[in-house]
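Quick one, T. Sequence first:
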Amino acid sequence: MVDFSNKYLTTIEDFLTESIKHSSVISFDDLDVKEIVFQISEEVRLKQFRWADNTVCVPNVVRILLLESKADKVEELEMLFNAPAFTKTLTDYLQSNNFHLILPIRTEVELVSKGSSRLIYSAGRCLLTLDWPLPEEAENVDVVIDDVKKKVLQVQERKPQISLIGRLTALNADVYQNNYFITKEITYIGRLRIVRDSETGKFLRRNDFVFAQLEDPEATGNSVSRQHAKIEFCDNAFVLIDQGGANPTIIERKILGAPNVITVTGTKGINLADGDTIILGSAKVRFNFVESIDKNTFVLQQNQDLLAKKLERGLPKQTFKISALYLPEEIKQLNEE
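Structure tokens:
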């Protein structure tokens, strides 16, 4: 039975309720707050897996299922459920019940057809599930499970698809997953995870290294376009290619100790060197070569990198660029505890 008086579930409920009230895009016909809180509790109850030393683990991927006919709400829901007020409170809720996260909480919004059995009883409202990462999703490990015995059998590094490994580290902006390891041939960089055509709603691409969209129009991450750049691995080199963002793509490289600025233009791009600083608008990202993927960078993490650290340090709160993400005073106070 769901304990709706639990302070963390209450915080999530209040946050979502106030968010919807202040949103011009999402309504209670799209998202039933009580249902979402109930689904969180039920998913946690049903998806407990035993790992080493009898540690109880739960999946880290919050998957929001949404009808295809509501594709225009994907962006708002992505920002809503990736907000620190949600991800950190959910993490705290799990920790308070002695549940362990192998990887940090992240949210994916998935569109499903009207006839999908997963939404048959939802009356058109979105549904929340907890899942383990899929092979095609941007994680650097695979969690091998026995779904019948409810056990985590193994946590193993994903074998890189390319012969070298690169790493991206955000220096001055909020990203969904920092210290991102490049292990495949094409890595997309931009603002927000899912990019759709603004007129047709057609899916364009899914970004891998994702900048958060913040309420403050002057926020660093907001200077990054949705389809800003990509990194291709070609001829044993990482090539940075600008994709027509509103702001330029620049490489800052030290040569003999002196800074050198290279503007990335054209379709061929520029080869990246170890230690380069990639500048997207006003956001800065460090690029490095690494010999191997350090599990300690992401396995057993309990927070959402830069997003959660802002809350822990008590720095001024920033919310995503959505009127829905209004934080009532009682939620702010709880997050500061």
